[in-house]
Amino acid sequence: MKDMTKNILAGAAGRRRDGVGDPLGANSEIGRKLKQYYDELVSDNVPDRFARLLSQLEQAEPAQKKD
Amino acid sequence: MAAVSQGFKADLLGAIPSLRAFAVSLTQNADKADDLVQETLVKAWDKHESFQPGTNLKAWLFTILRNEFYSQMRKRGREVQDSDGIMTARLAVHPAQHGQLDLKDFRGALEQLPEDQREAIILIGASGFSYEEAAEICGCAVGTIKSRVSRARTRLQEILKISGEDEYGPDAISAQVTAAH
Questions:
Q1: What's the rounded Cα separation, in Å, for the pair B50 and A6?
Q2: A35: containing domain
Q3: N or C: lower Cβ tally within 10 Å for chain A?
Q4: A13-30 per-position pLDDT tens digit
Q5: Which of A41, A47, A58 comes nearest B4 by C-beta?
Q6: pTM of the predicted structure, to 2 decimals
């Protein structure tokens, strides 16, 4: 773990200038966690209610000609 | 009003997972998030004619969702959190083991961010939007998004006690001092 800390610190020094351009890049712990957090949410199963909703909206549309 | 095309409907369906993820990020509550997504879909359906084909549908939908979120918050009389000055008291969770930051801890830290910072860091760091797109979604300047992202990131690091990956010198030094103890 200590070594890891050292590596992170060394990396930070090297990236100091680039850090501003890509603050959430793959090298950043925050960036990685953020993606992990979000990807987990995106991959959650979508409840049926949304497909049903869209079908209802579609059926509720008055019959009309296509444009 | 022109009929909603099958393609538009399919695109809406396809966008639902992203919309739900963004909604959970904003509301921090699964049930509220799904209600928000439902409202968004209804609104998007009603105003589908204002969507310009060929432009970014996901960004358009995120804008609707975000507007709906803030207008609901205003209706409930809930004051929108301000970025400044509310954090200091709530900082300090507990130190994360280096490189072993727990997702649960991260979620907790994210929850502590003011909405404007949270949405900015999610849009940029997770949803894959550019700063320009995020600025459009949030109705603010690109520079504002940049500063929110930067403040969000700094705060997350503070809350999670992550050190050593900041671009600023003093933090790296204080990290070394902390590590020595």
A1: 53
A2: 23-60
A3: C
A4: 434 333 445 667 656 889
A5: A58
A6: 0.75
Q: Is the separation of the CB atoms in B129 and A24 below 8 Å?
A: no
ipTM value for the complex: 0.77
Using the predicted structure, report yes or no on whether residue B128 has a pLDDT greater than 90. yes
What span, in angstroms and rounded, lies between the C-alpha atoms of B80 and B155? 18
Residues of A in contact with B176 (CB under 8 A): 9
Q: Is A7 part of any domain?
A: no
- Domain B1-80 grouped into CATH 3.40.1190.20: no
For A34, nearest residue in chain B (alpha carbons): B126
Among candidates B8, B153, B3, B179, which has minimal Cα distance to A20?
B153
Instruction: Indicate the number of domains in chain A.
Output: 1
Structural domain spans, chain B: 1-80, 82-181
Instruction: Count other C-beta atoms under 10 Å from residue B137's C-beta.
Output: 26
What whole-number distance in Å separates Cα of residue A50 and Cα of residue B105? Answer: 31
Q: How far apart are the first and last CA of chain A?
A: 64
| B37, B124, B169 ranked by CB distance to A24: nearest | B124
Residue B38 to residue A61, Cβ atoms within 8 A: no
Residue A39 forms part of a structural domain: yes
CATH code that applies to domain B82-181: 1.10.10.10
- Contacts for B60 with CB less than 8 Å, ≥ 6 apart: B44, B51
In a domain, A31, yes or no: yes
Of A32, A1, A27, the closest CA to residue A13 belongs to A27
Smallest CA–CA distance, residue A60 to chain B, in Å, is: 11
Give B20-33 pLDDT, tens digit per residue. Answer: 999 999 999 999 99
Residue B45 has pLDDT above 60, yes or no: yes
